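Record type: ASSEMBLY
Status: queued
Input:
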Amino acid sequence: MTEVAAHGGAGSPLMALDLHHVGILVADIGSASEAYVRRFGYSIRTSVIHDPTQTAFVQFLALPGSTVLVELVAPDRPDSKLSGALRKGGGLNHMCYAVEDIDDACRHLRAEAMLLIQPPVPAAAFPGRRIAWLIGRDRIPVELVERPLAGQV
Amino acid sequence: MRERVKRVMSDVFGVPAEEIPDDADAETLESWDSLGHMSLMLALEAEFNVSIPSETMLELISMEEITAFLGRGGSTPQS
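Status: finished
Output:
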């Protein structure tokens, strides 16, 4: 079997990329988080955060000892950007990667034919850090977030 | 061609073709979000047997721009 490099090539921002969280679109954060705690043993890592840019409420959960979070996402109003997707059933919504240099990572992923649908902007859920959104032909929305400092989610 | 595009949009967005206006765009069709847009671009590529470069995908956000692109045979004008 051909050996495959575990990371991107030399100089690739992928060398500094971590899976930060998986976003799950739900109708109601409270009942969903309760189910994740009861069903899978997740613990709640943040309060419910209002993100006006995403027109959403979000909350982060994690399994004990895991560095990868689950982000529960719910529309903040009937005409939220997420309402249409929720009407189709919600569920797996996006994958988010933490990166050292978000501008460089955006350039790299655009060169990989991904569409930049939201250039880096300050994030309500991650104070002092920026997020960006892209989508590729696999149709999985990808969020990038600047890498957290110690103690940050 | 416009009616063919509407049929593709109807399949992708789950909206009856007769309810899609001639001036439909990403602002007026609720299902035309980023995921819907990528789904539409892939469906148009398959239906019209064209390849849409990613930079062009970002520009095809209305019926008018889509039909103009397809009318050129799926090529992007040189600036």
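Annotation: The interface with chain B takes residues 81, 83-85, 88, 110, 113-117, 133, 135-137, 139, 141 of chain A (CB under 8 Å).
Annotation: Chain A has a mean pLDDT of 90.
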